[in-house]
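Render this sequence as a predicted structure.
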Amino acid sequence: MTKTRNYVFEQVSKLKEEVPWISLVNKTPVTKLENIGEEYNIPELYMKRDDLTTNIYGGNKPRKLEYTYGKIFEKKYEGIVTLGGLGSNHCLATTVFSKKKFNKTKEIKVTLLLMKQPLTADVQKKLLMFNNLGANIVYSGGLLGVAYNYFFKRYKNFYKLWAGGTDHITNLGHVNAAFELKEQIEDGELPKPDIIFVTLGSVGTMAGLDVGLTIAGLDDIELIGVKVAMNILWFGCTLYSERKSAKKTLKFIRKYTDKFNSIKLKKRKVLTDYVGKEYGYVTEEAKNALKIVKDLENIKLDTTYTGKTFAALLDYVKSNPVSDKSILFWNTYNSRPYDPFRKKDEDWRDLPKDFHRFFLEKLY
């Protein structure tokens, strides 16, 4: 796989002068889901394989971290403090790319402020990997505890990154992804999608795609987000938050060029019935979607994010005629193996004592 270009910098050269960035991400392929398409009468069903964004760790987070670590290196921060659930993909990606052997620049210290979520085997694996990779992990209980540790404790010369890693600058990673998709359409790798389904968590992936599709001339593609978190966790996992984030990113780009002054963001849609009882709750619909994608296409999804999004896609095609439409599922999960982050002798007893109970309690 080849590294993706920074299409945004090519479009707006002044951004390259103002925005720190490091190259981490590959140009990800598009896969036609032939078997699922045949089973569910979706002749043109495709998957954008952002589960393969880098050779070491995939998913949507590396596209954001190109800008996060670019800033950290330029400003010479010693470390980064961020937060998420006990099994946060964001926290794992942030920790992975803090290592010099993966970011190719320098070693960065990491403090993770972790909050409660439903306990699964995957959560336990993530806790072990955080420890294996040398992160300082702090159990903060619920949202109030993690907010206190984040806002009121001092972390000298540490960069503070909110849950999910989303802001108007890291959104540029998925603005870039939209231009990457445009090139793939032009190269005949897939027909132009009529609909794109994407997970809506901390809103950055959808917001970046929203802006990117608009300025790349693909704004007639219907972009549908699938909500996977309660509003309180992200302070607004909503269409309003996505709109606000997208507008802020577009406004930031316009500071450096007038070529997009006349364009307007299109109306978007968010499906809200797939979260479950709480963040990380394993729904039956998500488990069923995981099984379908694994059995028919041998691609792995997860129960917190992408499984719920694919479940929404399947429900959508049952109630809407799509036989003449092209649908793209944007896979934001990491499908790279965890082997580089595991140890043969890893032991949960080596974790801080606050985390021991998560290896003694019954799994969800």
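Summary. The chain has a mean pLDDT of 95. Strands lie at 30-32, 44-48, 79-85, 109-115, 136-139, 158-161, 195-200, 222-227, 269-271, 326-330.
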